[in-house]
Structure formats: structure tokens, C-alpha cells
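Input/output pair, single chain:
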Amino acid sequence: MRAGLRYAWHSHLIHYVLLRSGAFTLASAGLLALLPVYAQSHLGLGSGGLGLLYAAFGAGAAVSALLLPRIRARIGVDGVVVAGTAAAAVALLALAFSRSPVLAAVITFVAGAGWLLCLSVCSLAAQQVLPNWVRARGLALNLTVIAGATAAGSAAWGAVANVLGVSGPSAGEASRSP
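Output:
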């Protein structure tokens, strides 16, 4: 394990991959962390509706995984990262304005697709820059960075939501109910 960490410490290529994985995950973690608040306060959904939104996110990720080879062949690796980041960002922005559960499901589908596109390319990049003797340890480090960024991003976006509050027509109604 020490050899893997030592290699990662000195390899600038893996630094870039870890930074890209961590930055994307940190920024996009708010969607999954705040989806329950959004589903209840803006859409008036219960646990079943929230489950459908998470299922739409997962379905988007699964579909993009199936299409990834074609997408990568058409627009290249950098294009996949740009498209995935744009899809996730546009989906987050669109959710802020959506009050329709059906539209929210379509938007979370797109967010899931973008999320998987970005993180799969980051995992591929990690595999490509790591030599065989340290590849498994380097990939474990990449997954650790993703998990840590998910936790930190979820906490940070939750703190932002606590400070700024949740706005919207149904948010006020939800806070007045007993």
C-alpha cells in the first residue's frame, strides 16, 4: 500500500486524474445529497417518488454506460468529459426551475448519464496513466478520492442549503404543515 501511495505522491499524471475526479464529484454531489429535500419540498413527493428519481438517475447512468463506446468514438475522450460535465451542470440548473415530477425524472436521467460519462472517463484515465505494478492500488486511490469528494460535497452542499434555505412555492407550504 505504501508503494502505491508513494507512486501516487510523485506522479503528476495521477494527480491530474485525481484532481479531475475529485473536483467533478465534489461539485456534483449536491444532486444526490439534496434530491430528497427537492423531491419533498418542490415536487411534493414521498419516498416512492424519491425512489423513482433515484431510479431515473441510475437508468441514465446505465444507458450512458451502454452508449459510452459510441460516444467516445464520435467526440473523443475530452468531448465525453465536456459533454458529461455539461449534462450534469445543465441538469442541476434545470432542476432548480422544474416543479413537475415527470420532468424532474427526465432531468435526473440526464444527470445520471452525465455523471457516469465523467467518472468513467476519469477511471479510464487512471488506468491509462498507472503502470501495471501499481494499477490496482492507484484505482483504489481514485475510488477513495471519489468517495471522499462525494462525502465532502454532500456535506458542503447540505451546509449551503441550510444557510440559504430551500426556496420555492411548495417549500413554504411544507414548512407550515404540522
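The two ends are 53 Å apart (CA to CA). The first helix runs from residue 2 to 10.
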